[in-house]
Write a structure and sequence with these properties.
The complex is a heterodimer.
Chain A (H helix, E strand, L loop, with lengths): L1 E14 L2 E14 L3 E5 L6 H8 L7 E6 L4 H6 L3 E4 L11 H11 L4 H14 L15 H13 L5 E5 L7 H18 L2 E6 L2 H7 L2 E6 L4 E7 L14 H19 L2
Parallel strand pairs in A: 3-7, 3-8, 5-6, 6-7
Antiparallel strand pairs in A: 1-2, 1-4, 8-9
Chain B lengths: L4 H33 L9 H6 L2 H7 L18 H18 L4 H4 L7 H32 L1 H16 L2 H14 L4 H25 L4 H9 L4 H36 L7 H10 L3 H32 L5
Classes of the chains: A alpha/beta, B mainly alpha.
The structure holds adenosine-5'-triphosphate and magnesium ion (MG).
């Protein structure tokens, strides 16, 4: 079943230095329960595409649908949770308060809010930090809290824009494992932006390689890895093979210019 | 805090020394006139010559008479201790021993600075509350309505370019003549001065949330009121308090200026009354009470700010 579908999607930003062609003729189908990574050099339109899916950016051409609706309708139906490139917690709210924010807005009862906050904090390993303020947490913990915030209301789609970009390798590995476990358990559809080839290969069922000026999709790689993925799968020949394909795709995008 | 006491004391001492030094040439002419009247020999002897002489020449020509420049009854610049004595007399002494003082009459004396300070404080507080509320409401309107953004701001700016000392007497006269009680008439001027910094600060504060924080609200499909109460308002709090501090000081100025045109009590009335009757000590004493009040009011807002920000989890 198709959850997200884009056909000849185009987006041109009008800027003071002339038009910027951020997305050109983007075609992509994302099925239910897929884990799709977007990878490509800076400025190739990964964030822009994710924002189009989220209804935060209006395409200038082409079609895009989410759950069979326009992205804006899907946004209004609260179809997805969005994790931004920076944690962006509200500094005047505690960690618990930040996670409660969407729940308050969406009208969950007090009891349910408390229950969901506790549950999602557990999920991202932050139990016990509910009453702390963001400045009392490390950058990695803040990023985890922002993921918990996106998970709290349990939308079927999760859109994540380089959520682990600023974290060290060890924490990143750990969070990758947890994210996979969460995905396997909940069968969410996940769109995930990253700059890291191993991360993309490790997590995804589908890897979308993009290249800039104009931003476009140059390759879509379906992963042959099993759904069950221990961390050491990254040393398997299959993994290295896929990683090679991604690297070649990225390089081809560069040579094009 | 502790480390700053030393420098403050040094600067205060320097200011007081400067003040005493300035009192000598400022008061020398009156002192010499008085000394001559009392039969002393002064240089030069004729009043006409003294009038044309430089102050410093008179100072160095009459060193033996200078002591009186710090204790003269009718000084142009009273010495610090004279002002302090006036402050003491017109507060504690007046209230405890004066015929109309609180001890003997049960209410504050209308000759004491406690009473006049209270009058000014009432108008300041009322004007500040009105001004701050108006400022916040206007800011909300400006942020949420394009029409208000285009129309209100220019008028708010123009309103502040008119010198308040020119405007206040007219406003006071009009407001009194339509029967508005003095307190409200002065509060109007206070509000007029204090709403502007609040508008400017609050508009900036309500617009402080960045794109990402606003986009987050959009991903939740949050209503305008949710975005206001849960994002814009909390984000504006530091800006609000910064402008409230300016606003409350402006309110005090507004109340005092509103008291100048009519002799109906208040620190402004004391200042102008003092200048009518050559009571410079009275002017200075009222000035000091006003300064002290301004400091206390700003400190009070700062205290509120610290409490609010602490409650919002900002590290102090
Ligand atoms: N709001 C905007 N207005 C104008 N140009 C924009 C805007 N947002 C993005 N762009 C431009 O669109 C292009 C794609 O930007 P985008 O943020 O999608 O890149 P990205 O792939 O996410 O890059 P990065 O990996 O650095 O985050 C860039 O050239 C960028 O300058
Ligand atoms: Mg990006």
């Amino acid at each position: 079943m198709t959850v997200i579908s884009a056909t000849s999607l185009d987006l041109t930003f009008q800027t003071n230095d002339g038009p910027v062609h951020a997305l050109k003729d983007v075609n992509l189908e994302i099925g239910k329960g897929e884990f799709v990574s977007f990878i490509g050099p800076s400025g190739c339109g990964k964030t822009t595409f994710l924002r189009c899916i989220a209804g935060l950016e209006a395409p200038t051409g082409g079609e895009i649908s989410v759950n069979g609706m326009t992205p804006d309708e899907a946004r209004k139906a609260r179809a997805y949770g969005y994790v931004f490139q920076a944690a962006g917690l509200y500094p005047w709210r505690t960690i618990g308060g930040n996670i409660r924010l969407p729940l308050e807005i969406m009208g969950f009862t007090k009891a349910e809010q408390a229950e969901r906050v506790a549950k999602t904090l557990e999920m991202v390993d932050l139990a016990g930090f509910e009453k702390k303020y963001p400045w009392q947490l490390s950058g990695g913990m803040q990023q985890r809290a922002s993921i918990a915030r996106a998970l709290a209301f349990d939308a079927d789609i999760l859109l994540m824009d380089e959520p682990f970009g600023a974290l060290d390798e060890i924490v990143r590995d750990h969070l990758n494992e947890q994210l996979l476990a969460l995905w396997a358990r909940t069968e969410k559809t996940i769109g995930f932006v990253t700059h890291s080839i191993p991360e993309a290969v490790y997590l995804s069922t589908k890897i979308v390689v993009m290249s800039p000026r104009p931003g476009r999709i140059t390759d879509v790689i379906d992963s042959t890895l099993p759904k069950e993925r221990p961390l050491d799968i990254r040393d398997s020949p299959e993994f290295i093979e896929i990683a090679h394909r991604v690297r070649d795709g990225l390089r081809a995008g560069h040579i094009d210019e | 805090m502790k480390g700053s006491v030393g420098p403050i004391v040094v600067i205060l001492a320097a200011l007081i020394a400067l003040w005493y030094a300035a009192a000598v040439p400022m008061n020398v002419k009156e002192v010499l006139t008085q000394a001559e009247r009392d039969g002393a020999v002064v240089q030069p002897a004729s009043a006409a010559e003294r009038r044309d002489a430089g102050r410093w020449a008179l100072v160095f020509g009459n060193l033996e008479h200078l002591g009186a420049t710090w204790s003269s009854e009718r000084s142009r610049l009273p010495a610090p201790h004279q002002v302090v004595m006036e402050l003491w007399d017109s507060t504690w002494v007046e209230e405890t021993t004066g015929r109309r003082g609180i001890v003997r009459s049960g209410s504050f004396s209308n000759r004491s600075l406690v009473y006049h300070g209270g009058v000014t404080l009432g108008a300041t507080a009322l004007g500040f509350v009105i001004g701050a509320l108006a400022g916040v409401l206007l800011a909300v309107g400006i942020v949420y309505s394009r029409v208000m953004d285009m129309s209100v701001m220019p008028w708010a700016i123009i309103s502040q370019t008119i010198p308040i000392v020119a405007l206040a007497p007219m406003m006071i006269v009009v407001l009194y003549s339509v029967g508005l009680p003095g307190l409200f008439a002065k509060a109007v001027i206070s509000a007029y001065l204090s709403f502007f910094p609040v508008v400017v600060g609050m508009v900036k504060g309500l617009r402080a949330p960045d794109h990402m924080q606003l986009d987050l609200m959009r991903t939740y499909n949050a209503s305008k009121s949710d975005t206001f109460w849960k994002l814009r308002l909390p984000a504006s709090v530091p800006y609000l308090f910064a402008s409230l501090k300016i606003g409350i000081a402006a309110s005090l100025v507004g109340a005092i200026v509103g008291e100048l045109p009519v002799q109906r009590g208040g620190l402004g009335a004391r200042m102008l009354g003092g200048s009518y009757y050559g009571q410079t000590e009275q002017i200075w004493a009222a000035l000091f009470v006003a300064a002290l009040m301004a400091a206390l009011l700003v400190w009070f807002i700062g205290w509120l700010e610290r409490r609010t920000l602490n409650a919002m989890g900002v590290p102090s």
